[in-house]
Amino acid sequence: MAGKTNKKVKGKSNVGTDDNENHIEGPAEGNGSLETESLDADADASNENEVKEAEASMETQNSQGDANKVSGVTEENTAENPDAVANPDKVDPNKSEGHSEGQLQLYPMAVKGPSGEHVELQVNPVDSVMDLRQFLLDAPETCFYTCYDLILQVKDGAKHHLADFYEIGDVADVTSGNCTLEMVNAVYDDRSVRTHVRRTRELLSTSSIHSSFSTALAMENEAKNKADSGSSKEEAPELEGLGFMEDPAAQLENLVASPSLPEITCVESIGFSSFNPVPGFRRLQGDLMYLDIHTLEGKKFCVTAHTRGFFVNASGGVILDRRPAHPRRESTTLVGLLRQLSEKFSKGFIEVLERKAQGHPFENVPSLLPCNPWLGPYPPPAHKRDVARAEDALTLPYGSETVGMQRDWNEELQSCREFPRKTLQDRIMRDRALYKVNCDFADAAMKGAKGVIGRCIPPINPTDPERFHMYVHNNIFFSFAMDGDFTLMQQMHDQGSKDASKAEEKDSSKIADNLSKAIGVEPNVEQVQESPSAGALDSEGSASLQGADSEQATYASANNDLKGTKAYNNADVPGLYTLAMAIIDYRGHRIVAQSIIPGILQGDKSESLLYGSVDNGKKIFWNEKFHEKVLEAGKLLHIKEHEVLDGSGAMVKIAAPVECKGIIGSDDRHYILDLMRTTPRDANYTGPGFRHSVLRPELVAAYCQAEALAKAKGKDGEDEVDDKSLNQVDLLSIKLNPNVFTEFKLAGDPEEITADEERVRKAGKYLLDTVLPKFVQDLGSLEVSPMDGQTLTEALHAHGINMRYLGQVANLSKHLPHIWDLCIVEVVTRTAKHVLKGILRATQDHDVGGAIAHFLNCYTGHDIPQSASIGNIEKSPEVSTTQPHGKSGSSEKGKKKGKSGRKSADSVGSDNNSTGLIKDDTTSPASYLCVTSDLIWKDIREAVKFKYQFDLPDDALSKVKRISSIRNLCQKVGITLAARKYDFEAQTPFKTSDILDLHAVVKHSVPMCADARDLLESGKLKLAQGKLPEAYELFSEGFSVLQQVCGPMHREVANCCRYLAMVLYHAGDMAGAIMQQHKELIINERCLGLDHPDTAHSYGNMALFYHGLNQTELALRHMSRALLLLNVSSGSDHPDVAATFINVAMMYQDIQRMNVALRYLQEALQKNLRLLGEEHIQTAVCYHALAIVFNCIGAYKLSSQHEKSTYNILAKQLGEEDTRTKDSANWLKTFQQREAQTLPFFQAKNSPAVSMATAQKAADVLKARPDLLQAFQAAAAGGGSSRGALNKAAAAAAAAALIGERENLPRSRGLDERGARAKADVRKRAAAKGVNIRSQGVPVQALPELLNLSSNAQRKKRVEEPSSSASSANKEKAEQNEHDKNVSQKDGTWTESPANPKKDAQSSTIGQTPLGLGTGLGALETKKAKQKEKPMKAVTS
């Protein structure tokens, strides 16, 4: 892609890189001079801002380059290794081109703007003209030009007009050089002039700039370093992590706090004039529209937008004066005209460009799929007048384009699918077009769904019941989906109530029994078993259940249809088309949006059903040509070709679910839709009500692979078969029949039918017996470490586990408290989501905010006063989901009346100001006021039991983490809360004013680039093997492909940046790693959310990289932010929090803050013992970190004790022969040797000649070492108990060491008679002064908390051995400082054996494995025990 060169133009030096390059800045080989890819050192200061703008805009297009600098990181910090070729562990930055398409060559090209601007580009023949236009749109010199033609002049003088959709190489040969590109003003039309006005408004606005907290920290640190350049360096502050980890509610305000930047205003307003539309006679003379401009100077102008530009007309009143004003002011661009009209505009426009250039370029790039924030600023910012915002909101309703210019979504989508795909560049162009169309469709569908729910779009079948209403808007078809789960649950509840006895216990037992039988399981939820039918239900109940079961438009069917659409899109069979699809949840309703098949609404005769059934199998259509395409897709999706019988008994051979529909549209394309059962039904859930309980595609793929491996083993007679050697034919030969265990009749050989059923049963058994236990095992080993509901859902789906198995995951994870708590929060939140949606469906528009606040109060256990007396309501309104969906507030539940409703409303929203339009009508209270906390939690318990076969504990309300649960619920429903401290002890923690917004939650079918996915997987494999150059090359190529397909704002781009940061980190280039990690952090903040766990991991990794550059204070501030995000998303009890504490402790250790390091390690050890157990590897990491710290302060006995614990755990978990166990043994030997070196000092420990004066000498020594004294005091003051405590013998030994086993210090039992008399005298004098005396005879005031550590040793393992003298302490410190210098350049892990005990005792403190966030600095995404080569240290999330 095009990029700016490093050639100077008009005194500016611009950076130019190729899209496929990821340049690592650093000293050049030989002379150490800096490379010239960045600013010259002597660049003119007056052009500095323009250079930054150029770099920023270039980075937006070519983010692969590292031109932009993260504050605090300079070129001098980078470290490019010139020996990378010789050393396979180092990255060669020159080998960054694609591995399959060859190296892309760049050729210079000068660009001349319409007003004489000059820009230098580097282009490639494969660059499209649209790429050039996009770059020029982002360049500061040409950013305000939108309507122009591009004229290319080549070396021989020939000129070529460049059309938008051509590649440059198709027009002319640019490889010869000396090519120039000229921007020539074009003629405006109605569309282009509107585009130009919108672009100008975007340029002048700074509200769209995302300011990352990390960027603000880096800029603040840089400014501080400049200010303190001549002063002494301050000591790094201590984090507040141990303080706020227990109160996440108090930190919500800090979560959304952003740097306060003053707003920049360039012009008062730019709006469409009331003179519009243009009179006919003026349109014939070129007028397109009229604008009213109000400048900051207070002047008002009426501007005519003409086909040739903009000029100020002479209108000054209510009558249009079309003549140009005097003096004549005109320009081809609106920015150029404003510069003539206002000096303040010129100054403000420069400031806006500078503001956008100050931050990271990714902060200015728009996101096509933004996330919904669940927290908003508190108090909300003032809502100011903005004509441009109002016009955009009111003139483009419900996602439609300008009137008369609606998009044909289906034609756009299918045309993009027909793009060529032979070469990589062809596939990139095709994937980019598909991604853009799908993103635009999802956005338009979301806006249209809001219009449908808001009753702004009329239905096309108004005479049908409201639940069956359908809508067409902007060429998108909308329909409602029912909440089938709660409909069935209510019917089951009612049926159980009829058959139950009068006794409440029997009634509850009957409901639970019916629920269990209906889903095909026994009451014991630990084991899922198949049940033939729900025989306990009577005929009436069975009929009602069958009615609900046959309902197609349910939540489950919509989800399955979307998954099936994605599966066929991934199969990508030529000639077989699917529709664009999105699912929108808003205001309690679920809307399914689809593109429209050509001719289906017009009744065109060419439209016909060729395949599948529309009447539930009574008549099945079949077409040979269509069947061939479906069969080809079925081979890739493991769908077996099989025979079924229709209603007449005719046999039909199909390779898809019976209810799918194959339609040929009026455009002669073959469409397949209604793909609810692309995968077979789950054999573990065969009862009524679970018709749409199908297996996930990931499970089908994993099962087929396991079967193919087993088949290959049996064929070859080998015990082990590599996945790579698995024949693709064998893999595709494993197919499943999607129509078994359904109401459809299968034809063919009975034995074959039985085999098909058995294979599907075997897949379900594979899920229960293999996948679930393996998943729980991975949770225990931290191979999988979900932190919130979203990451847990993603982890389950990645393993092929449906969310209905979440109850079983919880039961299998009782030994993991953090996973148990996470599962409880998730099942409660998922059911509470349906309850809240039911309330919202029955709520009037003006009561939505109050209903949400009321629900949140009840959800957290706070019943509103007076509302609890509302009469005997057994169920809250959400369970009746059969109400019409088309009209909000039109159901019967919206008309419920209750007592004291007005008082309840006032108590919830007491901050609302009443107006004359709102009447205090006590006879018509809001429907949500009948909801109480007991009713909500009753529904939640029943729903959890019904859907997840899981019994919530009795104290679930008190055990559920409130902030994590509320966060999860808000994300699922789309609620935005005010970011303030919520007092959950108050009667009403939430008020109506706390509900800031309600967003639509969208599920879409936006595709993923297959080429980029393959490159990333290959790169991960190379990284795990330690092949850094190859991994770097693959990740760089993947980054380039993703950048071209979906732009920088995409989650997969963030993953690419993270892996690139890993490679650079292992290669020793910390500055390059920070640059890539900063990109990932910004992308995660914008695409996933400010408090997403991946964002927290990004902050943690940034901290580790900054620490690698010895910027510890900046690293600690990033760690503080990471701890805040982890606390909000997962709470304080999580292994990742403990791992982060270890990393923080290592940072404090490196700056000699041992007392703080000990406190963090103590907290980490307690968390790991409580969450993971005494024998977990992560607990061993904690013990090892403690051993290192004790070694640093000279407490070698304690180092040996803790390292012994490390060794015992590793030996038990990994075996004696594992390299990590051997390394721990080497560390233990080192510590024991150091301990043995002190034995000569202890030989005189029983000498009777030693007096208490020697003991006092030890006290004086400790007083001379305040850091050791503080460490002892901190460890003693920590309190608490630990299951991993030292035994009594170890505690006695530690106490003896403290009392005086160093040099000539005697133990307490070795004191002579003179010492005893001295001790008695001390006691007498102390007693006379009223001072308590410890058993050792030292007054409390002499050495506070020191001698008390003998009793604390069993609980804290924080006892240390004091130095014998100041000289030995200085010597020990000198040795440690010398070791620090060596370690700072070393990339070792804690598992490495120390070659030099004196200098390498601390080598584990940097990059130890698995320290860090997630699995830390060592674990890659590979099997630890199966890797033949030693895995590298990595920063993972």
TrEMBL record:
<keyword id="KW-0694">RNA-binding</keyword>
<comment type="similarity">
    <text>Belongs to the CLU family.</text>
</comment>
<feature type="region of interest" description="Disordered">
    <location>
        <begin position="1308"/>
        <end position="1329"/>
    </location>
</feature>
<dbReference type="InterPro" id="IPR028275">
    <property type="entry name" value="CLU_N"/>
</dbReference>
<feature type="compositionally biased region" description="Basic residues">
    <location>
        <begin position="1"/>
        <end position="11"/>
    </location>
</feature>
<dbReference type="GO" id="GO:0005737">
    <property type="term" value="C:cytoplasm"/>
</dbReference>
<dbReference type="GO" id="GO:0003723">
    <property type="term" value="F:RNA binding"/>
</dbReference>
<dbReference type="Pfam" id="PF15044">
    <property type="entry name" value="CLU_N"/>
</dbReference>
<keyword id="KW-0963">Cytoplasm</keyword>
<dbReference type="Pfam" id="PF13236">
    <property type="entry name" value="CLU"/>
</dbReference>
<feature type="region of interest" description="Disordered">
    <location>
        <begin position="524"/>
        <end position="549"/>
    </location>
</feature>
<dbReference type="InterPro" id="IPR027523">
    <property type="entry name" value="CLU_prot"/>
</dbReference>
<dbReference type="InterPro" id="IPR023231">
    <property type="entry name" value="GSKIP_dom_sf"/>
</dbReference>
<feature type="compositionally biased region" description="Acidic residues">
    <location>
        <begin position="37"/>
        <end position="47"/>
    </location>
</feature>
<feature type="compositionally biased region" description="Basic and acidic residues">
    <location>
        <begin position="1370"/>
        <end position="1384"/>
    </location>
</feature>
<dbReference type="Pfam" id="PF12807">
    <property type="entry name" value="eIF3_p135"/>
</dbReference>
<dbReference type="GO" id="GO:0007005">
    <property type="term" value="P:mitochondrion organization"/>
</dbReference>
<feature type="compositionally biased region" description="Polar residues">
    <location>
        <begin position="1385"/>
        <end position="1394"/>
    </location>
</feature>
<feature type="region of interest" description="Disordered">
    <location>
        <begin position="1349"/>
        <end position="1437"/>
    </location>
</feature>
<feature type="region of interest" description="Disordered">
    <location>
        <begin position="875"/>
        <end position="918"/>
    </location>
</feature>
<comment type="function">
    <text>mRNA-binding protein involved in proper cytoplasmic distribution of mitochondria.</text>
</comment>
<feature type="compositionally biased region" description="Basic and acidic residues">
    <location>
        <begin position="1421"/>
        <end position="1437"/>
    </location>
</feature>
<dbReference type="InterPro" id="IPR025697">
    <property type="entry name" value="CLU_dom"/>
</dbReference>
<dbReference type="InterPro" id="IPR011990">
    <property type="entry name" value="TPR-like_helical_dom_sf"/>
</dbReference>
<feature type="domain" description="Clu">
    <location>
        <begin position="381"/>
        <end position="686"/>
    </location>
</feature>
<feature type="compositionally biased region" description="Basic and acidic residues">
    <location>
        <begin position="89"/>
        <end position="100"/>
    </location>
</feature>
<dbReference type="InterPro" id="IPR033646">
    <property type="entry name" value="CLU-central"/>
</dbReference>
<feature type="compositionally biased region" description="Polar residues">
    <location>
        <begin position="907"/>
        <end position="916"/>
    </location>
</feature>
<feature type="compositionally biased region" description="Basic and acidic residues">
    <location>
        <begin position="1308"/>
        <end position="1324"/>
    </location>
</feature>
<dbReference type="Pfam" id="PF13424">
    <property type="entry name" value="TPR_12"/>
</dbReference>
<feature type="region of interest" description="Disordered">
    <location>
        <begin position="1"/>
        <end position="100"/>
    </location>
</feature>
<protein>
    <recommendedName>
        <fullName>Clustered mitochondria protein homolog</fullName>
    </recommendedName>
</protein>
